[in-house]
Amino acid sequence: MPDSTSELTVEDPVTHSEKIPVYINITLLKVGCDYVGLDIQDDMGRHEVGFQDNTVKVPQEGGGCRFESHFLINKVPGNFHVSTHSARKQPEEPNMSHIVHKVRFGMELEEGKNVKGSFNPLQNVDKSNSDAMASHDYILRVVPSVYEDIKGNIQFPFQYTFSSREVVQFHHGGVAMPAIWFRYELSPITVRYKEKRKPFYTFLTTVCAIVGGTFTVAGILDSLLFSATEIFRKAELGKLG
C-alpha cells in the first residue's frame, strides 16, 4: 500500500465549484417519517424549509424514521437541521432522540486509503437517552481537503471536528419544537494529501528485519539445541552434576 504525505495550505481547493455536497444519514427513534424534514439556511440568505430532493425516509420499528439526504451547501457559514417544521401537523411527542450514522462533506474517500483524518467523526453518536423536549446542537468546523493518489487522480473530501450540546428552548412563553441542528463554518486551512510509492530502501529494510529476525530465532534455537545435547552427552558419560 502506498504511503501518503500531508501538508497544510491556505487556499480554496475546489475553485471550480461554489457549492459543497453534503450527505446525512440519521435515525430518529421517536418521530415518524410523516413529520420529519430537512431545513437549510446560510449567511447568503438561503432558507429552505422541508427540502425534498434526493431524500429518503424509511419507517422504523417503534415509530421512528431512518432519514437520508444528499444536498448542496454554499461556501459560507450556515446550518441544516432535521426537524418537524415542514410537517402539516406537529407530533404529539416531538422527541428528537436519535443516532447519527454518517454526516459527510464533499466526496467520499475511497476505502483502503492510508489517510489519518476526521472524515466522519459523528458516526455512531447515540442520543437515544436525551431529554424528550431537547434540541440538539452540533457545531462543526469543516476543513477542506485534497487527496491525490499515486496515479494523479484527485478527490476533494472534507474533514470536520464537532462539539455538541442539548438544550430545551423556549419560544413565546412555551417550549419550542425541538430539532437537530448542524451548524457549520469553513476553515481557511486546506489539508493536502499525496500518495507516494514506498522507496526501495524501505523494502530492503523490511527484508533485512525479517531475515535478521529469522537468524536471531534460528540462533536461539541452535543454542538451546546445543545446550540440550551437551547435557545429554554429559549424562551419558556420568559427568552430570
From TrEMBL:
User: What are its GO cellular component terms?
Assistant: COPII-coated ER to Golgi transport vesicle; endoplasmic reticulum membrane; Golgi membrane
Residue ranges crossing the lipid bilayer per the database entry: 200-221
UniProt-listed Pfam families = COPIIcoated_ERV
Gene Ontology biological process terms in this record: endoplasmic reticulum to Golgi vesicle-mediated transport; retrograde vesicle-mediated transport, Golgi to endoplasmic reticulum
Q: Which residues form the Endoplasmic reticulum vesicle transporter C-terminal domain?
A: 60-222
Q: Which UniProt key words apply to this protein?
A: Membrane, Transmembrane, Transmembrane helix
Under PANTHER family, the record lists: ENDOPLASMIC RETICULUM-GOLGI INTERMEDIATE COMPARTMENT PROTEIN (PTHR10984), ENDOPLASMIC RETICULUM-GOLGI INTERMEDIATE COMPARTMENT PROTEIN 1 (PTHR10984:SF36)
Instruction: Please report the name of this protein according to its UniProt entry.
Output: Endoplasmic reticulum vesicle transporter C-terminal domain-containing protein
Q: What is the species of this protein?
A: Pomacea canaliculata
